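We treat protein structure as text, and this decision shapes the records that our systems exchange. Because each token names a local backbone shape, the row as a whole describes the fold. An entry from our holdings is shown next, in its original layout:
>
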Amino acid sequence: MFSLKILIVEDDPVSALLLQRALEKNRHEILGIADSGEKALDILAENHADMVMMDINLAGELDGIKTTEIINEIYDVPVVYLSASSDAETLNKVVGTNPSAYVIKPFNIRELNMVIELAIYKDRKEKELQKLNNELEEKVKQRTIELYNANKELMKALEKEREINELKSRIVLNVSHGFKTPLTSILSSAQLLQLYAEKDHPFKPKITKHAFKIENSVRALNNLLTSVLFFGKADADKIEFKPKKMFLGAFVKEVLDTVSASKENDVKIKTELVNLPKVITSDSELLYQIFENLLSNSVKYSKDGQEVIFKLEYEGKKLVGTIEDKGIGIPEAEQGQLFERFFRAKNVGIVEGSGLGLSIVKKCIDVLKGQISFASDTKQGTTFKVEIPVS
């Protein structure tokens, strides 16, 4: 049994004396005996107590319950109530003051010792729990501050990244637009050279040959810049769906003329148009990007003498396009990367390209809320199928 410094608050001298002897017999130190709440508070103001044994029914302005409330507020000391009554009314009075224990008079020494031990044990556990709660609150507070600061840094980094992306997009757009004008001039000059070469000239074959090379190179550069401009807009979230009425026949002719003019091999395009309406409503620029890129790829990766089949049909308010070739195909191991930017399969050889075409196609189809699928074999070629809602 450990020794405690105990203050006895009891206005009955006989009960106080009996309690004092019982406590001293168990080697506890008695700080004093107070017969009122006021005296008890005076003693506690000058001495440290490990425990207070408190009679509930004290005479004077401060009874045991009021005195305990003050002790709970000012001093961190466990209080054990003493009372000759154990009725429900008395218990209801004391429960609000959170006593450490409750002893009914008359008490025996064994019961008293047990109550004291339980009271001290309860007090220690409550203090440990309070300490843990305080530590936890401090950790939560500290962690909250850390998370707040980390979030602030993250928001700054995101804002900085957004500014950099905006700057990058502006630079790409400005530089790309800057290239457009001189490329148009070069293309016009190349076409004029070809026109002049039609007249008698000793270097006519060479002029024609080099003018053709210039024209093709300019077209390739122009296509690359168009792709860069497209992704500049995509990264800036500026690609919008702008539907308008369009003549489908004229649209198909424009796509085929562009692809035919830029092809550098002897590959024929076989066109099948099925049940097409004269006019549809959709975004002609996005549709152009889809079919021009798919057809150009099929032609580019086919061999001389081969045929590309371009089938376009209208069914269920959808424009369904199929582009089938017998070209080099896409290796199975690389098909999962097909729509990634700058991806080019390992079997393309010396065929030039930017690796942007199919990623542009996928982005356009996503904006149009359509679907794209493909089947490819390095021995049989590739077939793309697109389904695009139109009205």
